[in-house]
Amino acid sequence: MQTFEGATVYLPGEIAETNVTIADGKIVEVGDATQGEVIDARGLILAPALIDVHGDAFERQVMPRPGVYFPMETAVLETDRQLAANGIATTYHSITLSFEPGLRSVDRGREMMQAIRDLAPRLLVENRIQLRWETFAFEALETIDWALEAPLTPSLAFNDHLSMSMRSFDTRIQDRLFEHSPHYALADRNDPRLATVRHEKHASRAGLGTDDYMALIDRVWARRSDVPDAMGRLAQKARAKGVPMLSHDDTQVETRQHYRGLGATVAEFPMTMAPIDDARAHGDTIIFGAPNAVRGGSHIGSLAAGDMVEAGLCDALASDYYYPAMLAAVDRLDREKRADRLSLWSLVSAGPARAMHLGDRGEIAVGMRADLVLVDWPAGHTPAIQGTWVAGRAAYRAQPAH
Q1: Fewest Cβ atoms nearer than 10 Å: which of 21, 210, 225, 319?
Q2: pTM of the entire structure?
Q3: Beta-bridge partner residues of 52
Q4: Residue (of 177, 111, 107) closest to 137 by Cα position
Q5: 11-61 residue pLDDT tens
Q6: Which residues lie below 8 Å from residue 320, measured CB to CB, with a gap of 6+?
């Protein structure tokens, strides 16, 4: 049994200076006298630990330089420690399962998932998986079936970056139609910009020359008419297992409606207002990237996360490609007075918990799992994590010099 004494505690509906006691991995008392080991939390914030529903910053540990791969166990252990130090107690690693070889190949994704399962007793935080399926990657379906049986239920995200890259050069990425609309405007396959502008960096990531990569694209693009049926069959399996499903980069109402029909009730990084309004009208969850909020806008010219938060059109913020962005986003949005602090904190705790159907965490209340963070947040300065607890276990502790 441990008691955090004198912290400024972020409770559901209020911020209070009080004590919080934990035992056997759960919160057992709020506001009573100290019991057991006392942790002096005076001058610090005690808040629900962060929950990251989409993070792929692990790719920097897997491939720290282009074409340079590190051992998977080393990458997973280092990533896990970064998560703990950033206050993230539950994470969904967004592992891309693509038709490409290299970093985002099916084999490498399965290797990472297996490493996470094998290393589970040594890991500091709860490492879950987002199956980030490129919908043309039929090669991934067997591995997804395997992953759906994992001990920690994964989430499933439908991604179609291939159609996005094949769109007409006259169509902005934010203006493209639903990818399987008969009116979807395509680029001329003979346009040399397809290789030099759209696919060159992807070829490099895959370790292929541009000509070989474009030949691969031709083979995979030929599957286009079969993709909707494949999505439907996989979604049926996911629904049967209660797996949370997400769509990615929606631009149209038709897109959101299609994926909602499959059971994907989470809109991840929507690019325009139309699918957001449709999502809100139908009770879907809306997620934006925390780096977008930290930077003050989207790096590709889509909607600004801060504006969506202020408008009440964002339910959760995800680390996306940078783990420190979650805490930094709360800080910037707080400075900008986009919402009150409790509402902002819920974007990285209770909101993600609801999105992933994790009813046992995300709030400080008696009976909830003791996933907690101690935060040093002096007025006018950047917050920093001083401790992370996962189911009552100290996953990370830091003691400043002064």
Answers
A1: 225
A2: 0.96
A3: 91
A4: 107
A5: 999 999 999 999 999 999 999 888 899 999 999 999 999 999 999 999 999
A6: 54, 55, 56, 269, 289, 290, 291, 292
